[in-house]
Specification:
- It contains 4 helices and 6 strands.
- The chain is an alpha+beta fold.
- A hairpin with a 2-residue loop joins strand 5 and strand 6.
- It is globular, with a radius of gyration of 14 Å.
- The two termini are about 30 Å apart.
């Protein structure tokens, strides 16, 4: 239930306004609450690349350039990217060889991408329209806190 997750994250945002604890708890909450997810976390924009931020899951790629892989593509286009089968995505960066599908939602503030929420699954076709809508709503709420910190 994405509405419940969003409400929980709003409560966490009110408890602490600095974005690092909030994104850390957001990653943990999403990782724990969503079924068939093997990685959930954030990459934050630093110049021309995305730098690994708070996450839950296996060790991850540290730096991803804008326009590269699923995360870099979502950041460059400033739009959500849903990939049913990562092996069919041109230029996919395989940080975890067990990942089969992925959804990446950009965080936008002041018209620019400031980071992305990345969620992977070891199940092909795991993410649908309800996931897109729910995660985009969560990111719209998170954007306010991240951009104010």
């Amino acid at each position: 239930d994405y509405d419940l997750l969003c409400a929980q994250l709003k409560g966490l945002a009110e408890a602490e306004r600095w974005y690092v604890p909030l994104l850390s708890n957001a990653a943990a909450l999403l990782y724990d609450a969503l079924e068939n997810v093997n990685w959930a976390g954030f990459y934050l924009v630093r110049g021309e690349y995305l730098l690994l931020g708070p996450f839950q899951g296996k060790v991850a790629c540290v730096k991803i350039y804008k326009g590269k892989g699923v995360c870099g593509t979502a950041a460059a286009k400033k739009e959500t990217v849903v990939v049913e089968d990562v092996e069919c995505f041109p230029g996919h960066i395989a940080c975890d060889p067990d990942s089969r599908s992925e959804i990446v939602v950009p965080l936008i503030a002041g018209g620019r991408c400031i980071g992305v929420l990345d969620i992977d699954s070891n199940e092909k076709g795991r993410f649908g329209e309800a996931d897109r809508e729910g995660l985009e709503a969560i990111c719209r709420m998170l954007e306010k806190t991240v951009s104010e910190s």
